[in-house]
Amino acid sequence: QQDVTLRQSSGSSTATFNAGARADLAAGYNFTPHWAAEIEVGFMWDSMDKVGGVSLNSLNQSVDIYSVPILANLIYKFPTMRSFTPYVGLGAGATVNTLDFQNNSTRDSDTCLEPAIQAQAGVKYAFNKHVSAGLAYKFLGTPNQRYYLKGSGDSIVVDGAYVHGIFASFTWTY
Description:
elongated; 174 residues; 12-stranded antiparallel β-sheet; single chain; mainly beta
């Protein structure tokens, strides 16, 4: 998760994140040997580290963002005569995002639905015609995420969330 700008009634500040986690599951169809389409669903978790340069741990606070991306991807596989297949892809869809705030005495959360885009590039190695493994880079971007925290009566806007990830994959083809 890249750094983001948080906007709320008291002003704006930069938030930094700890390394998060993401897992995806995709099902697709190969239209040709080079073109494929897939539906992908995933789960992401990112934990804020600092807001305005101040560690949330020092304030006995935590902010986690949980996201479920739901995307339709179009994949192009470059032709090769070897077991390695490089590919690129573009996707679009939405993310369901939940911001969870905790401090010593309160816990508050809100959920929003935002459009999302994704770009990916990687390489797969085919062990046989049914099984392959790969390594990929994915970039996922969403516009502003808006959350309303009932406990404080304040709204928080996360200005554009951009997530970069390196993925290992396993593919079974039938």
